Amino acid sequence: MAAGRLPAKHHIAFRDEDGRLLHEECLTREGFEGPYTILYHRHRPHPSRAAPAEHGWRIPEPAPRRPLLRRHYRTQDLRLPGGPPVDSRVPLLWNADAVASVLAPTAADPVYFANGDADDLYWILEGGGVLRSALGDLRFEKDDYLCVPKGLVHRILPGAGPQRWLSLELLGGIHLPAQWRNAAGQLRMDAPYCHRDFRRPEFRGPLEEGIRRVLVKRGGAFHAFDQEASPLDVVGWDGSVWPFAFPILAFQARAGLVHLPPTWHGTFAARGALVCSFVPRVLDFHPEAVPCPYPHSSVDVDEIIFYARGQFTSRRGVGPGSISHHPAGVMHGPHPGAYEGSIGQRTTDELAVMLDLREPLQPTAAALEVEDAAYHDGFAG
Ligand SMILES: [Fe+2]
Questions:
Q1: What is the mean pLDDT of the chain?
Q2: Nearest to 241 by CA among 290, 200, 187, 184
Q3: Beta-bridge mates of residue 282
Q4: 128-133 and 154-158: which strand pairing?
């Protein structure tokens, strides 16, 4: 992707209309071997002074291990703190690869933020807004995934009205699953989405918002710097690192003769994590198909499902905002009656996001506040 004014080649003198030299910023991933984006700033982008880190959210802390049980957390019962997105995340479940949080922001970020630890993936359950960065303004709305690359200086301006977002901080970097890409890296013709489904930032040219403070999260802690110039003073950029929005309902779900496993719903992959989208769809069409997921021992992964809306065929007692956590080591499956009751069902209107995670998840104190303690035993017939 490219926007604004660019010189003919990397690392050559490039000047503005007044003849003043512009300054490159190379945003590179995986050292200098991975995807990158190059931005052209009006001012030197790197001079900064250390400043107090007065923003950020509560970082999860290790807690004693609990008994291995199937768990259910009712995030709909959480009293969320409000404030700007950079302050209002409430982490709930986490491991070394991913942190799942919820937030209900009520104000725009007053500072710029760069997550130096992770790519941020949000799922907008309610509300929407604008993600602003030097790459442009990216609009997002209800039912969108919003992906913000690691290290991108940005701020988020929630729109008017109630907001409710799921936040997935993916510490090993997010990418599209390999099975949906061809050898050239392009999305395959048979992938469940295409490049036109991904909304990109709209470049606005150099922006001066009067904000100099940049909050950085790195090493599980918040740090801050005051920049000399606006971090958004960019005349043009090109490259492969940019934020995007993807409407979950654009995911083209598959149906089969019989039940298809979650990998068919794989939408984003990350180190130790696979994000799957369960969207309204037709169900399996074998005359004797059992559309309800079969009981399974997925021995290598913890599974969480965040339920947004619709009727969930396999679960009782979960509702919009619920998170079920089915850890590796204990089998899980449908609630009583759901398995047989699903036979003959032709469609589902469920909307949910599932994460499969390689490492065991821990809950935070906030999750424990809204735990449904009866969940594990509720599968008895
Ligand atoms: Fe499962």
A1: 96
A2: 200
A3: 347
A4: antiparallel
Report the separation in Å between the CA atom of 275 and the middle of ligand 1, taken as the mean of its atom positions: 13
Among candidates 217, 275, 271, 216, which has minimal Cα distance to 59? 217
Task: State pTM to two decimals.
Answer: 0.97
Considering just the CA atoms, what is the radius of gyration of the chain in Å? 22
Q: Distance from the CA of 70 to the center of ligand 1, in angstroms?
A: 11
Distance between Cα 247 and ligand 1 center (Å):
24
Q: How many CB atoms lie within 10 A of CB 130?
A: 17
Mean pLDDT of 117-121: 98
Nearest CA-CA partner of 180 in 197, 162, 161, 193: 193
The CA 305 to ligand 1 mean position distance, Å, reads 9
- Paired strand residues for 37: 27, 239
Q: How far is the CA of 320 from the centre of ligand 1 (A)?
A: 18
Report yes or no: 166 and 277 within 8 Å, Cβ to Cβ.
no
Start-to-end Cα distance in the chain = 55
Residues 142-159 have a mean pLDDT of: 98
Report CA(78)–ligand 1 centroid distance (Å).
25
Q: How many residues comprise the chain?
A: 381
Question: Mean of the pLDDT values across residues 7-34?
Answer: 97
And the tokens for 367?
């999750």
Amino acid at the residue 310: G
CA–centroid distance, residue 331 to ligand 1 (Å): 9
Q: 339 C-alpha vs ligand 1 centroid, how far in Å?
A: 13
Q: How far is the CA of 302 from the centre of ligand 1 (A)?
A: 9
- Cα diameter, the chain: 78
Tokens representing residue 313 in the block: 């065929």
Q: What confidence score (pLDDT) does residue 316 get?
A: 72
Query: Which candidate, 47, 7, 41, places its Cα nearest to that of 233?
Result: 41
Other CB atoms closer than 10 Å to residue 161's CB: what's the count? 9
Task: Read off the pLDDT band of 158 (50, 70, 90).
Answer: very high
Residue 379 phi, psi dihedral angles, 5° rounding = -90, -5
pLDDT value, residue 313: 64
Query: What integer pLDDT is reported at residue 101 of this predicted model?
Result: 98
Q: How far is the CA of 129 from the centre of ligand 1 (A)?
A: 33
Å from CA of 197 to ligand 1 middle: 28
Average pLDDT in the 312-327 region? 86
